[in-house]
Design goal:
By secondary structure, this protein is mainly α. It contains seven helices and two strands, in the order ββααααααα.
């Protein structure tokens, strides 16, 4: 295409760079989506049947980092309101940071003990009382799971039979989609965009319900 600082810039390199950009964006989107969808209550719901105590401890450990960050900012804001003078001395700053850490650790451990006692009183970990959040596996969830697994199995079977191919390095060629290839392509598209489709239907249903409530 052109030269930049005596280095050739080819069309293949541009396509390869764009492909890698989308690949990294997809990985980041997957982690962001997991963080947004699987919160602490859903994590406990998934694993508390098998390992109730371990899942709860693991969930609390993952929760400590953002919790420490939020409480540290709260303590800093309170301290700045009470004492508006800024300590420029290094010794004073170290002492102030140590006081923050002491208060932050005591606050967090005290809340952890209260949570543990509350769970013990509520018989957490027994056979009848395991989840502290209540979810039900409905018929809609079963139908959607069957559809998603059916599409996934269909794609993997065709990949095993050689009907599909995965090319890591981009190839510029004419795209021909017809017949059975079109069915595979549509199935893969629906499988990839399955969460977006569900979210779209949910948003439409929520919007229609809101309009109906406003009219009535």
């Amino acid at each position: 295409l052109f030269y930049f600082l005596y280095n050739p810039i080819t069309k293949e390199a541009m396509i390869y760079g764009i492909y890698n950009m989308f690949m990294l964006m997809s990985v980041m989107t997957a982690f962001i989506s997991f963080n947004a969808l699987i919160d602490s209550t859903r994590f406990l719901y998934l694993f508390s049947n098998v390992l109730p105590k371990t899942s709860f401890v693991f969930d609390m450990a993952l929760r400590y980092i953002p919790l420490f960050k939020k409480r540290a900012s709260d303590l800093s804001a309170v301290q700045n309101v009470n004492n508006k003078t800024n300590q420029k001395n290094i010794k004073d700053k170290i002492t102030k940071s140590g006081t923050y850490l002491k208060a932050l650790t005591a606050w967090t451990l005290e809340e952890g003990m209260d949570t543990a006692l509350s769970l013990k009183v509520k018989n957490y970990g027994t056979r009848k009382k395991v989840h502290y959040a209540r979810y039900r596996y409905t018929i809609r969830d079963i139908i959607l799971t069957v559809i998603f697994l059916s599409f996934s199995v269909f794609i993997y079977i065709n990949a095993f039979l050689g009907e599909t191919d995965f090319v890591f390095y981009p190839v510029t060629d004419r795209l021909e989609i017809k017949g059975y290839t079109l069915i595979i392509f549509l199935t893969m598209t629906v499988t990839i965009f399955f969460p977006f489709i569900l979210e779209g239907f949910t948003a439409i249903k929520r919007g229609c319900t809101k309009i109906w409530l406003q009219k009535h």
